[in-house]
Design brief:
Blueprint: H1 5-19, E1 42-47, H2 62-68, H3 79-93, E2 97-101, H4 110-124, E3 129-133, E4 145-148, E5 151-154, H5 160-166, E6 177-178, E7 185-190, E8 193-198, H6 206-209, H7 220-235, E9 239-244, H8 264-273, E10 278-281, E11 288-294, E12 297-303, E13 313-321, E14 335-344, H9 347-353, H10 359-362, H11 364-384, H12 391-410, H13 416-419, H14 424-431, H15 436-445, E15 455-460
Parallel strand pairs: 1-2, 2-3, 8-9, 9-10, 10-12
Antiparallel strand pairs: 1-13, 4-5, 6-7, 7-8, 11-12, 13-14, 14-15
Helix pairs in contact: 1-3, 3-9, 11-12, 12-14
Bound molecules: fe (ii) ion.
Fe (ii) ion (FE2) binds next to loops.
Length: 462
Amino acid sequence: MRFSNKTMLILFFTLAALLGGCGIQGAAHRPAEAPDRERREISIYITNDVHFLAPSLHDMGQLYRRLASGSDGKNIEALPALLGALSMTVEAEKPDILLVNGDLTFNGERQSHESLARYFEELEKTGIQVFVLPGNHDISNPFARGFFNNELRAVPSVSPGEFAAIYRNFGFAGALSRDRGSLSYVAEPFPGLRLLMLDSCKYTNNRTLGFPELGGAFSEATRKWIRGEAEKARRDGALLVASLHHNIMDHHPLINEGFTIDDAESFQDLLAGEGIQFVLSGHIHAQEISTRQREAGAVYDIATSALAVYPHQIGVLTAAPAAASPGPSSERSSAWEWRYAVKALDVESWARVVGLADERFLDFSQKSRDYFMMVSGNMARRRLSTSSLSDEEIEALSSLMGLLNSRYFSGTSYLNAQDVPASLGYRLLQEHDYEFFSSYVRTIMEDRPPRDTELTIRIPER
Ligand SMILES: [Fe+2]
């Protein structure tokens, strides 16, 4: 999606208003009044993989625009509008909490972190409490760059300590507990609810390596700290919600190396053993819910798709006291019902509110889908360009790739069964083997249970 300079200028000033005004000083979170457990549900909005690049780090030049519209489908140019739409949604719906589960920045630029921190400061004026975690792009990233005069310019990234200082008001300063060996912490937004915010990133060797490590892991010491915090939450009768950037199980048979944490099965056992039945994650950029049955019970990994990538949706997690189970009152145990769903951000309404007359925002959902399908289709067009296929066949396969990828990233692959088998692209796939392309398309064709966009879990009171 291409935006004109004028549109970008308008967006820039809108974002500047959004980001401007206040510094990042201020009091750490004070635990808010607890929601009435009998009458009110807890609502937690979730986003990740924002990949924000501060407006001060580019001049909207050609190089920036080429890199911002990368082949991985990230739509960096639309982020000011998406953050505007997120603010509008939060203002209107007043959720209790926003979790931002890593990959906050494009490549860990200090200025991008500082801009986002100011944005969160503004957002908290609506009454929401924001909590952040780092992702693999965010800390000690040797790739941090500005984009000026069609040249890349190295800019400072941040150390782990600087990350915690910049976001001190968004989890770190008011933490109930912090892990000594990582940026993991426990926050208590209000009495009775604890957030287990887990830093799964490996940034220690980034400088030596010359690139940011993609994968994630938890050391034995951090695992011990997690067990201790789970035990404390149990003792205090608090609900516990666990978040991290990386995935704790494979979401895709081909794309999992560097996505799923090291020693994932033992970590799933740890969570199941502590009664933590689900985690919130990101990193893979697609909307995916997976589950594994462990000896101590089932564990779910709910990966919310990337804010920067179509369909630009956020996760919505609500918790409410579940209706009492039938049986003698002495045997009834109270439980909480957790519901996860997704919500697309309404950029169209935001554009109308701020007075933009640009179709690319007024018709954002469609345009962003077209853009994502084009980028996905281009991957296939490039791969198949040297094959012996006709232009019509290449186009059929590329369009199929666009459609399947758009559904896979949205968590709606279940729709494929309705219309894909009758398509020319699908028939070609049955008849020929296009190596990785064929394997990839087959793996995103089918929707493996559970559904990727909604989940309900009942958890007994701790
Ligand atoms: Fe990531």
